[in-house]
Design goal:
globular; mainly alpha
């Protein structure tokens, strides 16, 4: 791919701090939207008369759009300027948020989520690529750590903020509160955003776009359908999209490797530390979003807490995670990734296992401590692994590396969410069948839900163990 990004040395007037602030605020609100509605699912199901597998699409549908759009971002960066892409992303986010705030039914709310996702899908790879360009390698750990605050802190605190809003107002206000923040970010960006890209307008390969959409979209759609619950994995709506997705991705990969100017340069995977970084970030994102959807369900349905109380229990973990990300970024700049990623996975492995043993009698203090420690581990893993991997890439591969990394993060979130919900539903059903004689117990359904959550966190434990093994092979990249 021809180089389209200029370095800050070539453009001495570039002001990196305002640019970074604008990008990160926009990304924070976009990623907040991924999990902000999780705590409001019960109220939305009641308002619109829908079931769990339908309301789940407010999260997985959002991720589906990201999974389709983000791979195309490397191409978009060559066709449109930084300011154009930033402005378009914010306008989509503003429109989607406004439509969601006034949504009279589930169909309109779903459309609004798609529009929101387009905005976030444009912004995420733009943010990563611009940061790689405007900051030198020796400062990237700190800046990427701050970006980690955005990527992991936003989904973590989403349920807490929405829990407060749902209890005091209504779920519509989740969007009304975000709207002025998005408008401010848009105006701030218009004033301070600068172009750091050279537009080359390469030929658009329509077949690559189609194969990418079928491949990534089919995989996310198939896994999302599997999230409907026990027995759904054999459903044609799961098998057919997954098969189409695998075929589409295979053909997409072959085509990209054969093209002189691919839409997405998959040769980035020849860099070993980048590949390890992608795998680690993939697993970490599965842990984040599966926990973010399981814990609100457990706290409200298993421990019978109100939305706001459940949200408050998740707040300490979100705050600690946010504070830890910049710290781990600075530690990465000094010591490299190995002393952070491996201990981080040890922590997540221990606490996902402990979460696999929760019951209706687990204390709220225990849940707070386990959640906080889990997200400390996440903070030690996410940005160090991502930064180390991207640092190994030549500058001309930054857009491709950012697109690959961000795409697989969203795919991981969709897969993690769908599998977690599916395993939880299966465990819940198995408990209800095996203990049918206890149906007169007033907390029978709460026990069934807790049993399902135990099974789902065992999946997270296995994923964390795989991540721990991969972390043994991580080495610092010299830049």
């Amino acid at each position: 791919m021809s180089q389209q990004i200029m370095s800050s040395l070539e453009q001495p007037k570039i002001k990196p701090i305002p640019i970074t602030i604008a990008l990160m605020i926009g990304a924070f609100i976009g990623l907040l939207s991924e999990t902000a509605l999780n705590m409001a699912f019960t109220e939305i199901m009641s308002d619109f008369g829908i079931q769990t597998h339908a309301v789940q699409w407010l999260t997985t549908g959002y991720l589906l759009v990201l999974g389709i759009l983000v791979p195309i971002s490397a191409l978009l960066l060559q066709w449109f300027s930084t300011r154009q892409l930033f402005s378009a992303s914010l306008l989509f986010s503003i429109l989607g948020t406004l439509v969601a705030a006034i949504a009279p039914n589930f169909a309109v709310l779903m459309i609004a989520r798609v529009i929101q996702a387009i905005g976030t899908g444009l912004l995420l790879p733009l943010m990563t690529t611009v940061i790689l360009v405007i900051f030198p390698a020796h400062k990237r750990g700190t800046i990427m750590g701050t970006m980690g605050l955005v990527i992991t802190f936003a989904p973590a605190v989403g349920p807490t903020l929405s829990g407060l809003v749902v209890d005091k107002l209504s779920w519509h206000w989740i969007f009304w509160i975000c709207l002025p923040l998005l408008l401010f970010t848009f105006l701030f960006g218009l004033k301070f955003m600068q172009n750091v890209s050279t537009i080359t307008k390469p030929k658009i390969d329509i077949l690559s776009v189609v194969l990418s959409t079928i491949g990534f979209g089919g995989i996310v759609y198939g896994f999302s359908n599997a999230g409907e619950g026990a027995g759904s994995w054999g459903d044609p709506l799961v098998i057919i999209p997954l098969l189409l997705g695998i075929i589409g991705l295979t053909l997409f990969t072959i085509r990209q490797l054969r093209m002189e100017q691919p839409m997405l340069n998959l040769r980035v995977f020849k860099f070993r530390m980048f590949t390890f970084g992608v795998l680690i970030v993939f697993i970490c994102m599965m842990l984040i979003l599966s926990a973010s959807i399981l814990l609100p369900l457990y706290l409200k349905g298993g421990l019978m807490l109100a939305a706001f109380s459940a949200g408050l229990m998740l707040l300490p973990g979100g705050i600690i995670n946010g504070l830890m990300s910049p710290i781990t970024g600075r530690l990465f700049d000094k010591f490299g990734p190995r002393g952070l990623v491996m201990p981080g996975f040890i922590i997540t492995t221990v606490f996902t296992y402990l979460f696999s043993n929760v019951t209706t009698e687990t204390t709220t203090i225990a849940v707070i401590v386990m959640h906080t420690c889990l997200f400390i581990g996440v903070a030690m893993i996410m940005m160090p692994a991502q930064t180390n991997g991207l640092n190994q890439l030549p500058k001309e591969h930054y857009p491709d590396g950012a697109a690959v990394m961000n795409t697989l993060q969203q795919i991981a979130g969709a897969i993690g969410t769908a599998i977690a919900i599916s395993i939880m539903s299966a465990g819940q059903t198995k408990y209800m069948t095996s203990n049918a004689g206890e149906m007169t117990d007033p907390i029978f359904m709460s026990k069934a839900l807790a049993a399902g959550v135990q099974n789902a966190f065992m999946f997270a434990f296995i994923a964390s163990m795989i991540g721990l093994i991969i972390s043994l092979f991580v080495r610092r990249v010299k830049v």
